[in-house]
Amino acid sequence: MNIDSPTPSDAEATMFSHIPVLSRELIEGLAVHPGGHYLDATVGGGGHTRLLLEAALNVQVTAIDQDADALAAAQKYLAGYEEQVNFVYSNFATYEFTHGIFDGIIADLGVSSYHLDTPERGFSFRLAANLDMRMDRGQSLTAADVINDWDEGELAEIFFKYGEERLSRRIARRIVERRPLQTTVELAEAIASCVPPKYRYGRIHPATRVFQALRIVVNDELKVLETFLEKAPNSLVPGGRIAIISFHSLEDRIVKHSLRNSPLLRVLTKKPITAQESELAQNPRSRSAKLRIAERID
Ligand SMILES: C[S@@+](CC[C@H](N)C(=O)[O-])C[C@H]1O[C@@H](n2cnc3c(N)ncnc32)[C@H](O)[C@@H]1O
What we know:
By secondary structure, the protein is an alpha/beta fold. Helix content is 41%, strand content 14%. Mean pLDDT is 93; it is low at 1-14.
């Protein structure tokens, strides 16, 4: 094992729970074969890695995560597979890819249910906590820094660009009026206080888009995804496959274009694969999941 990360508490490790999405489609699409070496770029709680290990004999997995809690949880969940899994604490964008070693690569993007359900990680506007939102708690920028230090114009721009929030300017103005804001709930209340009633009591909470935008900015999610998709194909063997699950249109657009424009890849999914009715009924998180797969050609 190759973990060099902050040590999380045991309690944190045991709280990790996450139902892997599009599991059957992902494993079938990757055509896992005995003795193959696979990269799980987002191991999370280890759900997809376990399915890779169970799909064929003697599979090896390199399992990356930028969150120490996730790695600890995955190690626990995959006890018994120590010989077959190499855990790596890294951002997938800064991982040093070696040429032509993986038979398949998977990434299941974004945050896990654990992140959303653990108040102190600060991802949820429903749970009171400091505005944090870092997946890697080793980095310094937090959501509180962005909310309290950035200009009104910059805030409006990120809410519009990464949250696709129509009321971005109005919300940015209210945030600046109410600063400093320290907690998720204070921020959610500030947002709710400046939107029309129709919006406040609509289908989704009025803070949803702003929270998405902040998460993307704090973790630089779109940039690291682009970098990863530029570097990863080179580390596939010829015929090796890359399968990416994304959860919102900004990510899916990057995945679609990067796979299509890579000279090393042939896209196998003309349209993204989405969850079947049975999965949707069991796991609401699968509602927005899109899976795209490509194969290395040379
Ligand atoms: C949706 S969860 C993955 C769940 C996993 N497939 C499972 O079955 O349990 C996403 C995980 O990817 C990690 N992650 C997100 N972006 C990352 C990045 N740029 N580099 C490394 N890990 C990342 C998060 O910390 C989180 O643990």
